[in-house]
Amino acid sequence: MAFQGLEISVTPVARPDGPPPPLSGANLRRGLEASARLATRYGLLLGFLGVWQVASTAGWLNPSVFPPLDRIVTTLAEGILSGALLDDIAISLQRAGIAFAASVAVGVPLGLAMGQMPVVERALDPILQLFRQTSALALYPVFILLLGLGETSKVFVIFWASLFPILLATIGGVKQVDGKLLEMARSFGAGRLTLFGRVILPAAVPAIFVGLRLSGTTALLLLIAAEMIGANKGLGFQVMNAQFNFRTDLMFAAIFLLAFIGLALNAALVAAQARFCRWSEPR
Amino acid sequence: MAPTAPPSSPSGTDLPRTLAASRGEVSVRDLYKSFTLNRAALAVLRGLNLSVAGGESLAIVGPSGCGKTTLLRVLAGLETPDRGSVLIDGRPVVGVGTERAIIYQEPRLLPWANVLANVAFGLEVRGTPRARARERARHYLRLVGLEAFETALPRQLSGGMAQRVGIARALTVQPEILLLDEPLAALDAMTKLTVQEELARIWAEEKVTMILVTHDLEEAIYLADRVLVLSRETELPPRLLDVPLPRPRDRNAPEFVALRRDLMRSFGLH
């Protein structure tokens, strides 16, 4: 009897006055869903920019503080096309790039070693914690005294600050390697080097990527601070300099450039992470 | 067949097995091992003696804490005994060795490597060139029926499939002795039966010595020539039980059922 009830509900019922199967309607609905997703993702951002533009042109906001977006974009395009901003972009990318590369070159190998050697980690941990908790900007004057006001001290302060995230993430990545996998590899006769290359290093890669992203963000943050304090070139300098000269359009152009660089760096690292860490993504 | 596989012999008869089985012989002499638990010494192995013939299949059963996994880990070379010795083909065991391979309760696959790379891992670690290692890995993947999953990542496999990959990885190094530490304990009932049948077939084909730790008495009787029963109480010495049943074994045969009942009674179960 129970099955009968089930059968009745499954049997298609003729609907003489029902609408025809909505074939094109399905496409339409998919399109609407896609645009709804886009709207929820970028709607607020577009709204914010729209309000800015309208409020500035209508005079609700002081246009000398918040110039309309079209003027900022024009200034940005002029600066790039004339090459005036390109110099600043180049020098900023060079400073942050060298410092970031150095922090990775030091942090990853050091972290891999420290994660594997508890003695080394025990010995270095207190001093690392002290250095990490001391703001890099507080040490910037010290670096300037030691290294001069030139490029070296700027690169060094950025390197200093971005070293710790990548170093600590790498140590963490090595320490959380599954001991059962290590035992499995050892039982097949793996020596120290094989164990490192075939188990420890690949297992630490996802954590290293997290460290790379944190260090990248830190490098850009410190870049601006260092350029605001003691530079005569670079995007950080331009932000500060434009503000002194009431060139708020140029100021915002430099700010937007910095935001774009940050977004691009993050997008590149996310793409690399997706490529190398597919196995560790949540299902 | 892999180029190094032994020549085929009529399976099912006992004679070729015992003749071919001069390798993979295990001899345990007066083995002691204790652990410190809450500052009290816990003696899990107390003067154990055991001989396993080459090509034999031995199951080790007993309540948890009786030392069956400890014994297996000592045989594997992952633990050092307090006293006594383990000889394999007459040579004392020091650490892990290439003539032994372990299958664990968890598959222990490298999550970033695909199935084929995981199966070839043991050989590659031992220095076999990559192409050769992968070729032999393919052979054993076919043996466990997973040749279609070469490029899959471990996370895409079911529990039974992952365990089969672990089995193939152990077989690929062509060990004389296969050590299995409750390999099917985490599988669901149906998968467990299937993999048990596969293990019985593989053991017959590969002619390896198989030492299997399990808490599943039926599994022990299904797979083993002899069952070693360990107990936690100091009074009861380890006992060995023969399983004189023809292969392939029928779980519902009266002799099978009777053996299982005997074994269960020895643990005070009905």
UniProtKB/TrEMBL annotation, chain A:
The keyword Cytoplasm does not apply. The keyword Transmembrane applies. Coiled coil: none annotated. Pfam families: BPD_transp_1. SUPFAM superfamilies: MetI-like (SSF161098). GO terms for cellular component: plasma membrane. CDD domains: TM_PBP2. Residues 89-269 form the ABC transmembrane type-1 domain. InterPro entries: MetI-like (IPR000515), MetI-like_sf (IPR035906). It is found in: Cell membrane. Belongs to the binding-protein-dependent transport system permease family. This is Sulfonate transport system permease protein.
UniProtKB/TrEMBL annotation, chain B:
It holds the Pfam family ABC_tran. Keywords: ATP-binding, Nucleotide-binding, Transport. Gene3D superfamilies: P-loop containing nucleotide triphosphate hydrolases. It comes from the Bacteria. Residues 26-257 form the ABC transporter domain. PROSITE patterns: ABC_TRANSPORTER_1, ABC_TRANSPORTER_2. One of its GO terms (molecular function) is ATP binding. Belongs to the ABC transporter superfamily. This is NitT/TauT family transport system ATP-binding protein/sulfonate transport system ATP-binding protein.
